[in-house]
Amino acid sequence: MGSLQLQDFAAGWVGGAASVVVGHPLDTIKTRLQAGHGYGNTLNCVLTVYRNESVAGFFRGMSFPLASIAVYSSVVFGVFSNTQRLLSQLRHGDPAHAPALTDVAVASMMAGFVSVGIGTPVDLVKIRLQMQTQPYSKANVNPKPTVPGFPVYRGPIHCFRTVLQKEGIAGIYRGMGAMLLRDVPGYCLYFIPYTFFCDWITPDGCISPNPSSVWLAGGVAGVISWGTATPMDVVKSRLQADGVYLNKYKGTLDCILQSYQNEGLKEGSSVSCPCRETAASVSTSLLRIS
């Protein structure tokens, strides 16, 4: 039992680190499209970032996620797996008993709540670092006394300390409401389809799914999860990017209303990245297989 608990946390750690290395360039493009202005489409955003900032621009702000997302994924996937086992123990007297759908849903919601507590400051710093060289182009707003296009923060620690000093704990957890609305249903719509597809693909008589089944189930579940989570991810990104040069939004509802009124439903939906969940789920299942 104890070794299984440690395996879940270790697998989340490995998966989280892998997802950052693979997914950070796409995440940078996603953030720029969601929170920035003037790119038009994904290809133009890629070309603009490369032209202005070279390859390093796609990896801007990666050091902090690389150090922290591993812990984040470790805790989230560890909480999910161990909550499932606890519920199976309470219901059936056996932690290894196959979880019911309601158990998966409860464990997913627990993982979502935990992810917000850890992930909001991590995402805030990552997005601020990704956006701090982003020029703004919006009328009727008063920029802060900082020149757009030039770095505001010297690094992740300086960014965290600056936000904490100027905006307090509320600033560090800016966008938390939107992240709750993203992650609680988002993890439900990830873990439930993932569990279903793994069980469906795994041949009868096999105890654990094979690696190819894990990859397929993780990819499909990631698409389903991010397809529904993207609107709140856009809102979260805009709230967290807000404050580098501008203070545009009063809160989650105001951001939703302004985004919809100005751009409709399509903005920021062209790029989403289920890499984090897919990589972590793969590493978790592979450790179980081994």
UniProtKB/TrEMBL annotation:
Keywords: Membrane, Mitochondrion, Mitochondrion inner membrane, Repeat, Transmembrane, Transmembrane helix, Transport. The chain crosses the membrane at residues 61-80, 100-122. Solcar repeats lie at residues 3-86, 99-200, 209-290. Pfam families: Mito_carr. It is found in: Mitochondrion inner membrane. PROSITE patterns: SOLCAR (PS50920). One of its GO terms (molecular function) is transmembrane transporter activity. It comes from the Eukaryota. It is a multi-pass membrane protein. GO terms for cellular component: mitochondrial inner membrane. Belongs to the mitochondrial carrier (TC 2.A.29) family. This is Solute carrier family 25 member 48. It comes from Falco tinnunculus.
